[in-house]
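Each letter names a residue; C-alpha cells follow underneath. Both lines appear below:
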Amino acid sequence: MSLLPYIEVATGEKPGASVIWLHGLGADGHDFEPIVPELKLAKEHAVRFIFPHAPKIPVTINGGMVMPAWYDILDMNINRKVDSEQLQASADAVIALVEQELARGIPSEQIFLAGFSQGGAVAYQAALSYDKPLGGLLTMSTYLATADTLELHPQNKNTPVMVMHGTEDPVVPEQLGQAAISFLQKHDYSHQYKTYRMPHSVCAEQITDISKWLQPKLK
C-alpha cells in the first residue's frame, strides 16, 4: 500500500512521539496544521505531527461532487448508512502511517490518533482495532460509525480515549458523541467526555484541553 500524502510538523529535534491527525469532509491536512503551536507543548518532549490528506472521491449527499473524503456519506442521517468498505480502507491507510512511525523508531505507546468529524470515525476504527497498544485516541465532533462491525483488539483495551463535542453541532449531533461514549463504557474503555458551546468546529478552550490531555502522556 502506498502511503497517504501528508504534511509533517515537528515541535523539536528527534521526536519521541507522533500524532496522526485526520481532518473532516472536504478539508485537507492543512486544516489542523495551525493547531500545533497553539497546543504549547513542552520543548523537552518533541512531537511529530502527521496531517494526512484524504483521497478525493464522489460524495453522494453532495450530488456526487468529488472532494476530499475518508469515505462516502450516503445519507443525510450520517449514521444510518455507512460506506464501511471505504472507511475500512481509510483506516488501513492510517495504520500504514502508524507502521511508518514505528519504523522511524517511535514506540507504539507514543503514537496517538486524532480525528475531527469524518476523520474521527476513521480514527475510532483504526485505533480500537489495531494490534499494538497506542498512546491515546482523540475524537472531535464525530461518531462511531462502525459500532456494529468494529472488531476490538485487546492490545488497545487500555488506550485512553478523549471524546469532544459541540453542544450546538448541526452536522454531527451531540447524541452521536454520547452514543460513542456509551459504546466505550459498555466495553470498559478508559475515556473522558468534554462538551463545548459551539457548532461543528473547534474552539480555544478545547485546544487548551487537548494540550492538557496530551502532555502528561508524552515520555
Q: What stands out?
A: The beta strands are 6-10, 17-22, 47-52, 56-59, 65-68, 111-116, 136-140, 161-166, 191-196. The chain has a mean pLDDT of 96. The two ends are 30 Å apart (CA to CA). The chain has five helices and nine strands.
